[in-house]
């Protein structure tokens, strides 16, 4: 027996399908917190009072009986040629059936079309006529006011949305135009033999996100620091790798765009491991950094269903920060809250930050700035003070993203955790009980005001403190690198 998820994985990579099916699911942490079954919320949104509710293992006969007896079917199971599907909602109409899928997000996009088409293909093979297709998803306009309004929380769309968040393709029309027969794919899946499969590095290994079994198939430690697979924004790197091009020097420069980052990578390789544009870096630091210098890092969680007043679907809740301040000596401040701690977070941060000087964060525009903008919107009483913080924030990742600095030891990775060992190999996160951002988030999810594990809190504080200490170390290293001969820090 196979499921649509098996077929979908098989089409991405047969080995991914095989490993998921035979070796168990790899550990995966959900970035978004969903605290209630979305199918229950969907039933409330659709106003379903009575329905056939499918169960694991239901046969076609059981589901067909449900179709005869009920107007609505929830989680009904169907099977064709050993391929099983589970349809979130089916609605009986005079013309046939309407199918409703669930999108745990705000804007359903057409990259979900194939998944819907696979499910509907099975129904079609069983003679079930589907008339229209809809998607239930979260409402971008909803802001929680008091008790959760389940009806306003969700919305039902008959179209996909484009990158500008505007309605685009009609779902039913796009599905009917798809018109793909999965018989051949299903036959290939059932006949797959892992013994004859040739594992190759391909772009699909990193499609949207890295395959959970990437390290099972490949060992990046075997790659040299100048492997073309580490060349940033080089879309054809897997194609060239398969043709035998392995290193930066193998590639004719005419084959790449030679962006600022790529130039920095190639020059670092030619210069013995480090590229540094001192003039550009000195100018950038002089223009953007004012003493006293602070180093700031937030941790946050994302809720699909807004749990608190004035929160929207998929809104982020900052629960922790670390702050190092460099004046005559380096001082450290920290905060961790529980449940709805947003206002306390703001108050504590405002009381800890110096009133002047630059505030350095890594990838500030994609992190701390966004979080502060949300807090400013939700707590207008602090808007002026929060705006002052935003205006002083400086993104210390910019010298790297603009190609002013690169070390071959980074191996194409621009995260602070990859940069830190290139500056001081004694500094790393390996000795911490919590060493990754998502581990911090999932750990915080276990804590409440009533049940606080102080060892866990200490571990969370130590992790966040390491982030801002790393920013301090990076700042000091950059500062020393741009000093002219004879100057003092």
Question: Summed up, what is this model?
Answer:
This protein is of the alpha/beta class.
Overall mean confidence score, pLDDT: 92
Helix content: 25-40%
Quickly give the structural class. alpha/beta
How does CATH name the architecture of the largest domain? 2-Layer Sandwich
Overall number of domains: 3
The overall strand count is 17
The portion of residues forming beta strands comes to 15-25%
CATH topology of the largest domain: Nucleotidyltransferase, domain 5
CATH class of the largest domain: Alpha Beta
Kindly, what is the distance between the CA atoms of the first and last residues, rounded to a whole number of angstroms? 68 Å
- Cα shape: globular
Sequence stretches where pLDDT stays below 50 over 5 or more residues: none
Total count of helical runs of at least 4 residues: 19
Major sheet size, sense and barrel closure:
7 strands, mixed
| Overall radius of gyration | 27 Å
